[in-house]
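Contributing new records

If you add data, match the layout below exactly. Sequence lines come first and carry their own label; structure lines follow with theirs. Keep one chain per record. Anything else will be rejected by the validation script.
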Amino acid sequence: MSTLFYLFLGLIVVVAFLLIVVVMVQNPKGGGLSSSFGGGGTQQLGGVKKTGDFLDKSTWVLSTLLLVLILAASSVLITEKTSANRDIIDTNNVETPAATPAPATTNDTATPLEGE
């Protein structure tokens, strides 16, 4: 497998971990990280407005990025396998030089004819 596949694999692991963290921070009932900063969606704390919206958008972005990375890694893997199969087929189809036929053998010890 190529280095490009391993690069995609590493990015997939990192994005999956980040997606898990973002989903775990969210609370399905409206709590989570956004409620711990005062609960108000319009409050501003540390320059971040509507933390819940940020977490929702980051979930969508990370999930889309994960899907794209998986498809890219799959296409790299398929391309490598088909090129490897072509190489195998090409090496099997190499024409070997035709073997020279063996010279016809003649029987030097012929049986004498009866009349001779």
